[in-house]
Amino acid sequence: MDQKSYRRGSFQSSTSDEDMLEIAGASLDFTMADDDPPLDREMGGFSSYNGGGLTGSSLVMDFLEEPLPGVGTYEDFNTIDWVREKSRDRDRHREITSRSKESTWALIHSVSDAFSGWLLMLLIGLLAGSLAGLIDISAHWMTDLKEGVCLAGFWFNHEHCCWKSNTTFTDRDKCPEWMSWSQLILGHGEGAFAYILNYLMYVVWALLFSLLAVLLVKGFAPYACGSGIPEIKTILSGFIIRGYLGKWTLIIKTITLVLAVSSGLSLGKEGPLVHVACCCGNILCHLFTKYRKNEAKRREVLSAAAAAGVSVAFGAPIGGVLFSLEEVSYYFPLKTLWRSFFAALVAAFTLRSINPFGNSRLVLFYVEFHMPWHLLELVPFILLGIFGGLWGAFFIRSNIAWCRRRKTTRLGRYPVLEVLVVTAITALLAFPNEYSRMSTSELISELFNDCGVLDSSQLCEYVNDFNSTKGDDLPDRAAGPGVYTAMWQLALALVMKVFITIFTFGMKVPSGLFIPSMAVGAIAGRLLGVAMEQLAFYHHDWAIFSGWCSQGADCITPGLYAMVGAAACLGGVTRMTVSLVVIMFELTGGLEYIVPLMAAAMTSKWVADAIGREGIYDAHIRLNGYPFLEAKEEFSHKTLAMDVMRPRRSDPPLTVITQDSMTVEDVETIINETTYSGYPVVVSRESQRLVGFVLRRDLIISIENARKKQDGIVSTSIIYFTDHSPPLPPSSPSMLKLRSILDLSPFTVTDQTPMEIVVDIFRKLGLRQCLVTHNGKLLGIITKKDVLKHIAQLANQDPDSILFN
Amino acid sequence: LCPGCDFLFPQASRMFAQCPQRCVSSVVLIALLCCLLSSPVEASKSSEDIRCKCICPPYRNVSGHIYNRNVSQKDCTCLHVVQPMPVPGSDVEAYCLLCECKYEERSTTTIKVIIIIYLSVVGALLLYMAFLVLVDPLIRKPDAYSQPLHNQEENEDARSLAAAPVVPGGRANTVLERVEGAQQRWKRQVQEQRKTVFDRHKMLS
């Protein structure tokens, strides 16, 4: 019997409160969480927060009525008990309301308690907006640093460097203050040698940035890598990952996100911004008792913080709230809706006041055109939707295969080298092509742009007929040579992005998915748009065009095709529906384009769903084995509760604790020999009638505390869970009452309950475990992990891939 | 901290008083936030920060041109900014109809402050990493526990040895010892995280 790990702590511990955590249990390494402490130093705040057991009236006799610090908290990598957390919050609220009638201070306390939620949302919005502004400005500067430096002040990026000087109409990028590296080193910017030098500097800077990023992630906060959204989804469904939303993760994620984006890798910053905003939410929760102590309330705040994150990423507050509702959150009470919107709005307003783009715009690719579209254009839009769905399914399959390879083979042992190699390949392939060299946001902005008289980029080099120019409204024109060059360059960029993103997403640097998918879709859309435009120009006498697209009319807008393509690809990968459409039309400001966007989004979702059921985030959740019970899928098999419950027929009988006949030593033996997270309490072994459920962690903490602090508790003391102590001869040692940690209302189902109802109960109530009875007697237990394994088994997936608890 | 905070958030202010270490980071974050917010607010509109940009396309035999002047928003029109006017007086109206003038503002102070903050944080982190990798092992020679970056060959024994508290017995009283304890705890936490993510690939693929 291996008692070493259990006993050692109890002999070596000092009297500090912190050490109480370290002794509790064999594998509690994760609970030494500096930034996310489950304990609070004060003892008195917990008075009515028991596990549903007491009403708080009988206080006098028992030492353990005062709940200990640590009781009611959770271990790392465990699921919270939603029911218990919600009932604790209701108890707390009742107490505050009842005490508010006593004195003015108590009244003010209750008012401030009600306001604390709104104040917290305000703070989260401010912090998230400020961090997003910092990320935007730094990322812009560092991206341009790869190409040159500003002599007027090294902190200016290219656009701001040339802000004051007069640039020419055709060459809007050149100004005397901005020097490319070859100009700085060699003195001139033309020639083959200068080109090679620029190329070299570009690759060197890219490698330097990504090396810094991965070293910082590895050295300080390994949880800061990846997108963050799959883990946040799991956390919001009730899982605990200590340190994932802590302050070091926040700092490192912010810093390395800028580095990763600036190094030219094919990744975006929207997903990591959601993680950053949730970290802000988690950290600010510590300022308010109401949210610090209650895991369920904290998750409401995190939902709102996620909405604020998307809102600053896209400049779309409503889209952010809907994204949080649709993709990220698990339980989303209506109260959270209003508060999320408030947080998103405050964040957007803060970002606007920091003004990272100099124009009071929130996003780099805010478009302003309002050209009408024709019903026949729905055909190419649906084609774009199909492309988006196909690409989404292809991307998910390949990315998951690559990530699985990284997880299981030797590839995963060289994370730094992997990042450097991918960066080198990306930089080497991206530099020669103008469209892959520019940052992806700028590329999308240019592709969304409708060519007008004022544009002089290569993409807008149409053959102009000056005599027929009617003000700003240009008709469809024939493509000039510039457009043809741009087309094949864009096609090459498309191929490159499609393949390199597969290897980039999931690396050990913060990486998001939204911008690369939108880029792929925008390129495909623009190509199709220009093709349609030229088709309409050269064949305006065909039947399909003659009605609405006569010569000289401006009928096809390639920018709109790019937008629809971007929406289609993003929808194909993430399977977002409403939030995608709302984000896209908040980006454009035009309600006219809802129908094309919806058509493309729906088509891409149907096509992608036909090929593979899961979106990218759900696929990553399944790959990592997180205990996430999917809320959207129907459970459609006819199994019963007794098929899933433990113990099975061949297993030893269920480990139970009796209500008043076990000694301290017996209970400690059970705790040491088994690793279950909780034990049912029955009246007696013969009757097996259920009394309640007690958690392992609470038992350990209470017994340790009783051994140290209470008089006369020895190994042969009886533990009882009843209200009054059982009658025993006076020579027996004093007894230990543990009724306060017993949950008197555990959820039970009968063994004949169909599993669809059991799965529904788990989903709707957020249970961790559910007891199974037969004819009123306790028969077995079903935990969330059992449910997940059962679902996986029935879907022919590997049930052993469900890790964690 | 502030007198009103005490009765509005009694428990929060008690917490502030009791554990300065934990809340220093929150206070620092909020101070940083105020810094960031105040700089755009306070920045006066120096002449460097406003401009009116007029883009005029090619017109007949006049090539396209971009004009930049710092005028106020009400003066940001084609007539004020496009000087010298390239077309004769009768064509000015038609020409100006084609030009697009936009008023733009920026805050150079904000940009400068943010970039400098960012670079200093990166520099500080790099210095700290260098310290942890190079200097710390030399200081802590007796402890078998000191390599934050090289995670692969960790002994379970070395870890369990180091799990014993560094400060012998009793509560760590001085600030330095408390910082020591916190740093050791943080290092252990990062070690665990690194194991989970990089070695066992249990999370984040």
UniProtKB/TrEMBL annotation, chain A:
The domain of life is Eukaryota
Q: Which Pfam families match?
A: CBS, Voltage_CLC
Q: Which GO terms describe its cellular component?
A: early endosome; endosome membrane; Golgi membrane; plasma membrane; synaptic vesicle
Parts of the chain that traverse the membrane: 115-135, 192-217, 250-267, 273-289, 301-325, 375-394, 414-431, 486-507, 513-532
From the broadest rank down, the organism's phylogenetic lineage runs: Eukaryota, Metazoa, Chordata, Craniata, Vertebrata
Quote the protein name from its UniProt record.
Chloride channel protein
Quote the CDD domains the UniProt record gives. Answer: CBS_pair_voltage-gated_CLC_euk_bac, ClC_3_like
Q: What does this protein do?
A: Proton-coupled chloride transporter. Functions as antiport system and exchanges chloride ions against protons. Important for normal acidification of the endosome lumen. May play an important role in renal tubular function. The CLC channel family contains both chloride channels and proton-coupled anion transporters that exchange chloride or another anion for protons. The absence of conserved gating glutamate residues is typical for family members that function as channels.
Known catalytic reactions:
2 chloride(in) + H(+)(out) = 2 chloride(out) + H(+)(in)
How does it associate, per the subunit comment? Interacts with NEDD4 and NEDD4L.
Q: How does it sit in the membrane?
A: Multi-pass membrane protein
Q: What is its main location?
A: membrane
- Chain ranges of the CBS domain: 645-709, 735-801
Instruction: Look up and give the organism this protein is from.
Output: Indicator maculatus
**Which gene name does the record give?**
Clcn5
Entry keyword annotation includes Iron: no
Which UniProt keywords are present, listed alphabetically? Answer: Antiport, ATP-binding, CBS domain, Cell membrane, Chloride, Endosome, Golgi apparatus, Ion transport, Membrane, Nucleotide-binding, Repeat, Transmembrane, Transmembrane helix, Transport, Ubl conjugation
Q: Name one GO molecular function term.
A: voltage-gated chloride channel activity
UniProt subcellular location? Cell membrane; Endosome membrane; Golgi apparatus membrane; Membrane
Which InterPro entries is this protein grouped with?
CBS_dom (IPR000644), CBS_dom_sf (IPR046342), Cl-channel_core (IPR014743), Cl_channel-5 (IPR002247), ClC (IPR001807)
The record, for SUPFAM superfamilies, names:
CBS-domain pair, Clc chloride channel
From TrEMBL, chain B:
Is Secreted a UniProt keyword of this protein? no
Protein's cellular compartments = Membrane
Segments crossing the lipid bilayer: 113-135
Q: Which GO terms describe its cellular component?
A: lysosomal membrane
Span of the signal peptide? 1-43
InterPro entries in the record, alphabetically?
A: TMEM9/TMEM9B
Keywords assigned: Membrane, Signal, Transmembrane, Transmembrane helix
PANTHER family on file: PROTON-TRANSPORTING V-TYPE ATPASE COMPLEX ASSEMBLY REGULATOR TMEM9, TRANSMEMBRANE PROTEIN 9 FAMILY MEMBER
Family membership noted in the UniProt record: Belongs to the TMEM9 family.
Q: What is this protein called?
A: TMEM9 protein
